[in-house]
Amino acid sequence: MPLTRSVSVTSLSGLDEWDEEFDLEDAVLFEIAWEVANKVGGIYTVIQTKARLTSEEWGENYFLVGPYTESNVRTQVELIEPTNGVLRRTIDKMNASGCKVYFGRWLIEGSPYVVLIDVGFTAWSLDRWKSELWESCAIGVPWFDREANDAVLFGFLTAWLLGEFAAQCDEPPCILAHFHEWLAGLGLVLCRNRRLPVATIFTTHATLLGRYLCAGNVDFYNNLSQFNVDKEAGDRQIYHRYCIERAAAHCTHVFTTVSQITAIEAEHLLKRKPDLVTPNGLNVKKFSAMHEFQNLHAQSKARIQEFVRGHFYGHLDFNLDKCLFFFIAGRYEFCNKGADIFLEALARLNYLLRVNHSEVTVVAFFIMPARTNNFNVETLKGQAVRKQLWDTAHAVKEKFGKKLYESLLVGQLPDVSKMLDKEDFTMMKRAIFSTQRHSQPPVCTHNMLEDSSDPILTCIRRIGLFNGSADRVKVIFHPEFLSSTSPLLPMDYEEFVRGCHLGVFPSYYEPWGYTPAECTVMGIPSVSTNLSGFGCFMEEHIADPSAYGIYILDRRFRSIDESCHQLTSFLFQFCQQSRRQRIIQRNRTERLSDLLDWRYLGRYYISARHMALAKAFPDTYCYEPQEPPSVSGFRYPRPASVPPSPALSRHSSPHHSEAEDEDDERYDEDLEAEKDRQNIRQPFSLPLRNKGALPQGTLTI
User: What are the phi and psi torsion angles at 542 (to 5°)?
Assistant: First the structure.
């Protein structure tokens, strides 16, 4: 019998509180993904951050399954003997049959168990398994697609693992397997094809075809229903991958996606409507005092300022105290990630700041890994010159301080003209001469292998942002991931984000969007879009997102030029804020972190698992969806201190005004924080009841 109603997929209040909890001792959960202890993209962050909550729920019956990569295992995994007797026999049987399967603990929060399968060790079975895949599922995989070949090997090995585990159990097992993305999806298809006693969940974090179509500059979201999906996949030579993904979506008991916008996409491209949306969360660590994260911002900002001093040596003609740091980060997908519209908006912002004679300078960082061969010599030289100046200043300061100390000891006021001798002035003059530069500060920090055709550099040449002295917007392209061991910008990503003022992510294709979510958790305002899962999520649960530092750009119903104009307006308004206004806004942004905590968003994964068990084992489990409460539990109101009129909340002048003072007087941090806390309910668990424990007359699935 079908469910009487589907669980709300967009509102956090759609899952009501339950009175009972089900004991999961008789069930085993396997979570399978290519990015278990193997960082490739955002799925790694999902699994890594969610592991602690899932481990608390399932305890010793939770196992992550992924590929064995020696370099990752050395630094992330502690190999141990399996603690579960059934799993030990399963691994021993597979190893005796020509596989290499490892067991250990992943050294992350929660310390979950991991089962790692050496895919390359069984490559000799690839042709045989491809033939079996064609005969049983009519899916053919070409020999030249290495990623798809890995997916075939990984899929057959995970299906083997689950089948062997079920065979080794003394009693009929209740196995739940959660598969992430198409790379793991083939194992799900094989489980259903072989009729294994396994409840399955398939989560797509982004559709294959959707990513390819958006990269091709098509009007994707307004033409979803008109695509010939088979032809489009074939034209892009990913038809075999698309077939695996679509088969997994149709074979699974419960199909989920990470956002409402991706659910619409999956319904049209994969031809199945998701049963549930499972938004991605983070492990939020709250500070005991509000000012702590503000102090961290100030410390990280000071380190970025040091880098900027070196990068712009000889052209440091702007006030760093009135300098704002914007950034964009992520995979180097020029159009999908919105780098194109961000650059165009920066050019327009540069014009507005110049004609309004603004004292604000914007430094925009592009953190997107690309092909390089080394650091730019001029960039390294800038940091060396900065360090030399620092050493010179310290040497002079020590000599000055010593003479001052000796003068005061004898009870005399120092003669300032004798405090510095000729040698000191010579040393300082030489240091000043070393800062002379006849070229503009570099735009890119590295030597690009494809400089002439690089999309970001090509666009910068077109719009003319060359870090000139007249430009109020400076651009720095850092084409590799940040690292605390870098000789250029020795900061890790989290520290860098904390030091910036605004994250800008005007993505056209972003199924969820961890980058703006990470900004929010760290109290940094950000720009997102109504085509990203994060943007839609925040737009639904906050009455006035911009008041909380979440600027939602319309990229679905506006043209490129109109969206660019709106983004320019957001950036210009942000530049007009006073320092106190930015501090207030950061406080509001940080309070939204509760919305993104796995303690709240984890309930959707709990619901998906319960739904899958009830569908696969209807004689044992029953899932009871409930109607949402009449009052929405997650709805942040407009902050009381924000003026009701848009004209008052967005000053047209960058100068401090009396209206601004009045706005500051209305602000009460403690009062606002208390009101926001009242809009968040405490986390709770969804129960799953044994069918035998159901009250009389309860409707089952």
Answer: -130, 130
The CB-side HSE value for 468 (13 A sphere, CA atoms) comes to: 12
Nearest Cα to 426, choosing from 403, 387, 392?
392
CB-based burial label for 508 (10 Å; 0-12, 13-18, 19+): buried
463-494 burial: b if 16+ Cβ within 10 Å, else e: eebebeeebbbbbbbbbbebeeeeebbebeee
pLDDT reported for residue 630: 37
pTM: 0.85
Summarize pLDDT for 660-689 with one digit per residue, the tens.
444 444 667 777 777 666 665 544 444 444
**Contact (Cβ atoms closer than 8 angstroms) between residue 518 and residue 498:** no
**How far lies 560's CA from each of 211, 340, 512, in Å?**
19, 10, 21
Give the pLDDT mean for 635-654.
53
d(CA 510, CA 530): 10
**Mean pLDDT in residue range 129-149:** 95
* 3-state SS class at 375: strand
C-beta of residue 281 within 8 angstroms of C-beta of residue 602: yes
Nearest residue to 320 via CA among 340, 337, 303: 303
Report the share of the chain in percent with pLDDT over 70. Answer: 86
**Residue 229's Cα: distance from chain center in Å?**
28
pLDDT at 636: 73
Considering the chain, what percentage of its residues have pLDDT values greater than 90? 69
Q: How far apart are CA 458 and CA 84, in angstroms?
A: 57
Which two three-digit tokens encode residue 520?
């929010």
Mean pLDDT of the chain: 87
Structural tokens at position 59: 């305890």
Residue 218: how many CA atoms within 13 Å on its side-chain side?
16
Pairing of strands 62-67, 113-117: parallel
Helix segments in 194-290, DSSP class H: 208-215, 229-235, 239-251, 260-269
Q: 451: number of CA atoms within 13 Å, CB side?
A: 10
Cα gap 128→132, rounded to integer Å: 6
- HEC states along 623-673? CCCCCCCCCCCCCECCCCCCCCCHHHHCCCCCCCCHHHHHHHHHCCHHHHH
Question: Which DSSP symbol is given to 253?
Answer: S
Q: Do 293 and 587 meet the contact criterion of CB atoms below 8 Å apart?
A: no
Determine contact, residues 598/282, Cβ cutoff 8 Å.
yes
**Element of type H or E holding 403:** helix 377-409
Hey, which residues does 527 pair with through a beta bridge? Answer: 504, 551
At 389 the pLDDT is 85
> Rounded to an integer, what distance in angstroms lies between the CA atom of residue 255 and that of residue 253?
7
DSSP 3-state assignment of 327?
strand
pLDDT at position 649 is 41
The position carrying tokens 């489990």 is: 621
Our measurement of the distance from residue 441's CA atom to the centroid of its chain's CA atoms, rounded to an integer in Å, reads 31
Instruction: Flag whether pLDDT at 349 surpasses 90.
Output: yes
What are the tens digits of pLDDT across the range 612-625? 999 999 988 887 76
Tokens coding 320:
């760093």
The rounded distance, in Å, linking the Cα atoms of 374 and 310 is 18
CB distance 205 to 180 below 8 Å:
yes
What SS3 class is residue 682? Answer: coil
The average pLDDT across 476-482 equals 95
